[in-house]
């Protein structure tokens, strides 16, 4: 279910979850944020990391300013804090960091 100023799930390893099912320990989320909105994402599985890709706008993630087409990876953390500096669309990929 699409929500404004929050991440919504579009892919997961659980057949009964929202979005498309995938046979991997990965969760993908999309978010549309108004300027000034913030969100904290909790990583779904220990050992996973997050890769964020900014589709539109500008956001700040863990002190880093990211613009359109910028990507940013995080690992060894449980949460990721995001703040929209301007209206933004973000793809967040919660994926394993080990083989």
Summarize the structure.
The chain has 99 residues and is mainly β. It contains no helices and ten strands.
Features:
10 strands; Jelly Rolls; 55% strand; 99 residues; 0% helix; globular; 6-stranded mixed β-sheet; mainly beta; 4-stranded antiparallel β-sheet; single chain
Please, could you describe this protein's structure?
- This protein is mainly β and 99 residues long.
- The protein has a single domain, classed as Jelly Rolls (Sandwich).
- The protein has strands at 7-12, 20-21, 27-33, 38-42, 48-56, 59-61, 64-66, 71-74, 79-84, 88-96.
- A 6-stranded mixed beta sheet has the order 2-1-3-10-5-8, with no helix packed on it.
- A hairpin with a 2-residue loop joins strand 6 and strand 7.
- It is globular and about 35 Å long.
N-to-C SSE series?
Answer: EEEEEEEEEE
Number of strands: 10
- The helix-and-strand class reads mainly beta
Number of helices: 0
Instruction: Write the CATH homologous superfamily.
Output: Jelly Rolls
Shape: globular
Mean pLDDT across residues: 91
CATH structural architecture: Sandwich
Strand order of the largest sheet: 2-1-3-10-5-8
